Amino acid sequence: MDNTNDINDIAVLRARDFWAALVLIAVSAFFLWRTSYIPLFGGNRAGVSGASWYSSAAIVPLGVFSALFILSIFLLVTAIRAGGAKTALTAVGIGWNRFEAIRFGTIGIIIGFFIVGLVPRVDFILCSGLLITALIYGFHTGNPRRMIMSAIAMFIPAFYALAMHLPQSEWAAPHDDDWLTLVAWIILSAIAWRGPRDAVARATPIIAMMAPLFLVCVMAFGFRQNVPNRSGLIFSQIEYQYYVNIRPIWRN
Amino acid sequence: MEFVLTQLSGFGSAFLSLSSDPITYIYLISSVFLGIVFGALPGLTATLAITILTGFFGNKIPLDYSMIALLGAYVGAIYGGSYPTILLNIPGTAASAATAMDGYPLAKQGRGGEALGLTTTASLIGTLIGTVALLIFVWVLLLVSKNIASPEKALLALFGILLSGTLMSEDLVIKGWIAGLIGLAMAMVGLDPLLSEPRYTFGWSYLLSGFQVVPVLMGAFAVPQIIEGLRTMEIGKMVQLEGRILPNLKTIRKHMPTIARSGIIGTSVGALPGVGEDVAGWVSYGVGKSVSPDGKNFGKGSIDGLLCSETANNACIGGALIPLLVLGIPGSPPAAALMGAFTINNIIPGPTIDPDIILRVVAIMVMASFTMAIMGLFTARIFIKILRIPQTVFLPIVMVLTTIGSFSVGGGINDLYLMLGVGFVAYFMNMLRYPIAPLVIGVILGGLFDETFRRSLLISDGDLGVFISRPGAAILLVMIIALVLSQLPLVRRIFARLRKKAV
């Protein structure tokens, strides 16, 4: 990297440090205020008198957030001295890059909706298959159109699951959101299949199907671990077959 | 002498009991293989390997097997990073960054096979040096640690967080400290350890038990890596592997002083709380450059340079386990992940740890290092093939692994929300060049710091003199103050002036 690049990088970094310092000051100030809710003097909890300042549960957080507040101010001063405040509102300072914004935004949507929308409500094998397909198809070639397409494919079933089955009581059934996820996965796989079929494109459906299936079965039946949404469309069938037909083979 | 013999016999019986169990080998071979794969694939790290395996096994398998899997992956991953470093000039893990200085030039000279063979041997010897140090020093420290009370523990935890923040910062040191403080702040969430006072729970019952370590580790190390790695990355031009991999014994004998020195440096750096293998590699490389007769050729394809970093980063493993097992303070980010695994297996590292566990850890380390060497020398070409897998293919699978692992340990969706939140925060911190390791070490040591600091004050009836009146605490306090002062611009200027005057 040449010197000019280094200087530019430092300029961008200091501008971002300026914003980060402001956020950190706000956050530490907020938590300092929240710390005032914890009794510092004269508290009495569970029959234990916390009359002394040094036995208070607030003493360490007070120190931690005060230190964070002070260091954030130091960071702000350092950023301002390095010219971070001057460039803070320019494109350089914010470090705006359209392609990077699309990349991060779509990854954020895919991962975020996968965890918040699908994992609690939809069969884990199905939603993981969709996730793997979306990430490989969207990001392997670095084409922004593909990234957006993948994000849409993840967003539609996740948003539906969230909208239709928000409360925890509805997470296990019915399976309309599972079916919608399966449809989204098939459509996205078909779109991917229509494109240039290099080795990765050919392997994607197999990886997307086999990896989650193998992982979930190993976790659930090999290591007897908890897996998400055991009542999902596919896993409930696997579990039933395992306990009713397969396990008795060696149990008997 | 008697002490050494006792140690060796204890180690021998632990080694025999482990090696006589066939299941041991299944876990050992597969975990070392997986570790090397994680190290060899740029974007995956040793910490990630341990974290994912922790989530995968949880506490559902016997402790011995769990330790074999985690330590095997640790040893394998630190070594595995040398493959892409030598053949692609892309460090597989941060620990191998210094190896790139001489590894890649050697490969370009048509000595890639020789470089890989020497790296494997150096990693083996380095791991063994670290393991011997662990076997000897852990007991000495355990004797000392019996006299360590709350004030020393509190200051040691604080020192570990500050030191990690200081040494892991790529940009401003202040950022490392801020990261450590954010970790400490996260550890404050939940019921406080002495009075069970709820702190920062905002009425959410999940937060009463505080932030769980495994989802935080997954979020901090896996999610940013996945987001960052999902770029269209052209796999670099791989240098053709030429020459035999089996190393020449004469060459190893010739470079033995370098290997021994680097092993000692690596172990010492590892023993510093929260520092890690990458720092060990660079420190050893720097020392090697200044003392080696071949110093002028460092960076141009020097065998000495290659051995300096590769021996040190593997020796660091044993070193990093010393403070972890004796004091409950991880010596490196992967050791922090190991601590999380110990915790969910109901092992509390520290002065009260069962000595048998330490002997088993040492035995596993020896077995893992030989397994790594055998795999490295005889199956290297398999790992070279793995280097061709693009990140965009394996990272989505890692995301699924991370999700299922994070869920299975806590058994709840809330852990996934926590992982996601921490992951996005860690990604932005990475982007702003904040080191993540101090944050994780802060989360892990925060509870210890909080409890021991307040207990010290309770015992002394609020007298802060308790941190000065005890010799151990006073030394630690001086070290903390010196560490903070040494980073202040004013103090640095004064020192620079004094140095000029002396010249």
Q: Could you name the key traits of this structure?
A:
heterodimer, A: two-stranded antiparallel ribbon, 2% strand, B: mainly alpha, two-stranded antiparallel sheet
Plain-language structure description:
The complex is a heterodimer of chains A (252) and B (503). Chain A is mainly alpha-helical. Chain A has helices at 3-35, 59-81, 91-94, 98-118, 124-139, 144-164, 176-194, 199-222, 235-251; strands spanning 43-45, 48-50. Chain A contains nine helices and two strands. A two-stranded antiparallel ribbon of chain A has the order 1-2. In chain A, β1 and β2 form a beta hairpin. Chain A is flat, with a radius of gyration of 26 Å. Chain B is mainly alpha-helical. Chain B has one domain (1-229, 241-469). In chain B, 74% of the residues lie in helices and 1% in strands. Chain B has 22 helices and two strands. In chain B, a hairpin with a 6-residue loop joins β1 and β2. The termini of chain B are far apart. Chains A and B meet through α1, α2, α4, α5 and α8 of A and α8, α9, α17, α18 and α19 of B. Chain B: The chain crosses the membrane at residues 25-53, 65-83, 122-142, 176-195, 207-227, 357-380, 392-410, 471-491. Chain B: Keywords: Membrane, Transmembrane, Transmembrane helix. Chain B: InterPro entries: DUF112_TM. Chain B: Residues 27-441 form the DUF112 domain.
Q: Quick gist of this model?
A:
Chain B: Pfam families: TctA. The complex is a heterodimer of chains A (252) and B (503). Chain A has 252 residues and is mostly helical.
Oligomeric form of this entry?
Answer: heterodimer
The most extensive interface, with participating residues per chain, is: A-B, 67 and 61 residues
Strand content of chain B: under 5%
Q: Order of strands side by side in the largest beta sheet of chain B?
A: 1-2
* SSE pattern of chain B, N- to C-terminal: HHHHHHHHEEHHHHHHHHHHHHHH
Mean pLDDT of chain A: 88
Tally of DSSP β-strands of chain B: 2
Q: Kindly state the number of beta strands of chain A.
A: 2
Query: Can you tell me the residue ranges of chain A where pLDDT is under 50 for at least 5 consecutive residues?
Result: none
Question: Low-confidence parts of chain B, pLDDT < 50 over ≥5 residues?
Answer: none
Radius of gyration of chain B: 22 Å
How would you sum up the global shape of chain B? globular
* Order of adjacent strands in the largest pleated sheet of chain A: 1-2
Any idea what the radius of gyration of chain A is? 26 Å
Order of helices and strands of chain A: HEEHHHHHHHH
Strand proportion of chain A, as a percent range, falls in under 5%
Distance between the termini of chain A: 68 Å
Mean pLDDT of chain B: 88
Q: In percent, how helical is the residue content of chain A?
A: over 70%
SSE class of chain B: mainly alpha
